[in-house]
Amino acid sequence: MTATATEELAEPYLRGVLASAGLDVEYVRGDGDTLYYRRGTEDVPVLDFVGGYGSTLLGHSHPELIAYARELLAAQTPIHAQFSRHPYANEVAAKLNRIIKRETGSDESYFAIFANSGAEAIEAAMKHAEFERYIRVETLRAEIGASIEAARTAVADGTVAAGEADALLADVTAHNDAVFAGTPPLFLTPVGSFHGKLAGSTQLTHNPVYRAVFSALAAQARFVPVDEPGAVDDVVRSERRWLHDVAIDGDRITVVQRPFPRFCAVVLEPILGEGGIHEMPEPFVRDLQRVAAELEIPVVVDEIQSGMGRTGAFLASTHLGLRGDYYALAKSLGGGIAKVAVMLVRASRYKSDFEMMHSSTFAKDSFSCLIAAKVLDLLEADDGEVYRTAESRGAELLTALQGLMKEFPDVVKDVRGRGLMAGLEFVEQSDARSGTLRELHGSGFFGYYVSGFLLREHGIRTFPTSSAVYTLRFEPSANIGTAEIGKLTEALRDVCSQIRDTDGERLAPIG
Ligand code: F0G
Known about the structure:
Elements: H1 12-20, E1 27-31, E2 34-39, E3 42-48, H2 51-54, H3 63-74, H4 87-104, E4 110-115, H5 118-156, H6 165-182, E5 186-190, H7 208-211, E6 220-224, H8 231-239, E7 242-249, E8 252-259, E9 263-268, E10 271-272, E11 278-279, H9 282-295, E12 299-302, E13 326-329, E14 341-346, H10 366-407, E15 412-418, E16 421-426, H11 435-442, H12 446-458, E17 460-461, E18 463-465, E19 468-474, H13 482-501
Parallel strand pairs: 3-17, 5-6, 5-9, 9-12, 12-13
Antiparallel strand pairs: 1-2, 2-3, 4-14, 7-8, 10-11, 13-14, 15-16, 16-19, 18-19
The structure holds ligand F0G.
């Protein structure tokens, strides 16, 4: 049967979910902080605070980037020139290195592996970290094998009494074989993490809706509470495994325990994005850094949403004094028009053989890299003016949201974030006096109904963080102005009034 033109074939169920919350709108144009949908013959403007989940720090259709993209395409830039020299990729890597060295004070370089999306960058980080771990495991396997061989030789030449030696060596070998074969690698990541939805990265995403069904596919994570001192150490104590090595002590063989390199990497966002806009507590970050150093595993800093200057520094981790062994960047790196991501590995940990094991048809292409290089130039212009603007506009946004929390203390539970990565959390409506509000709560989509109301009644686009549906997320461009922040504030004031002073009927989708 062939599909009719009107038949929904591209994720029809999701289309239904959008419609149920009043969000099934087709946008036909984007410009700066505004998206437009068509109503009759007019383009209806919508003020966009979703910003591509953090992808449009420079706004939609940035004029310089659009002009540059046209220029590149007109010049027939060789987008598909795989397996050749890509100087434009090196240019992006060099620019990123200059920025990271400036912000972290590091004098060590980072090597770049390019990707097409955030999750792909995380997958590359997971694979490179596993490559590091694999080398440690195989080195240990060889060392213990050599010790066992030396012990067998000592028994054979009489240095060591045969006695129980054979049985002991057999037990040691059996124990180690079980550990080597039956101990999958573990990643450590905070509760509430979101690192993507591909086969590997989805296992680092805390929300079981995205992870549980696929957990047999890939490496596993342990999700560490961020507000429980010692929680990281507790997880390591409960999950670590030991190998048995042997040593010759006089005429005896003794067994020596050696830690099995079970843990692969620590992976964290400096500010949880999809998990509800929560800055990582500094004591927790320090614990993670300490444990990573003790386990000799890399700290992977996921700056896919928080990075690129959105929080007032190029890296949000800079605010935490956190220096990564790996960084993942994406979203705004593409300037709102290219799909580009990059995973950076500190030179001292970099395994160059990885380059022969990992690749992608579309990654590191000329168009995306040249756009990314231009984006970095725009961000770094005037000594990082965009970062300062993001900080000051973000402060104004957060102040406006905090004003609403003061005005509606029984409706707004919390305001969080830094710079232009802000969140407003509503009080849960599970026991609201209004049946409609209780029903919206029960749907599990509360924030999405609020989003539908904001779109329908105020021409504002924002979404909840999908793993924390009572938190609305605000990630506009650095060009967001006082007037737009005022328009958002007025609209949110109306939402708060609907929740506090009415039965909430207008929040439920019409029709
Ligand atoms: N890491 C972080 C911190 C992210 O916020 C996202 C996506 C990803 C990885 C995956 O990137 O979608 O390009 O594969 N965040 C969006 C969100 C989906 O809702 O916050 P991707």
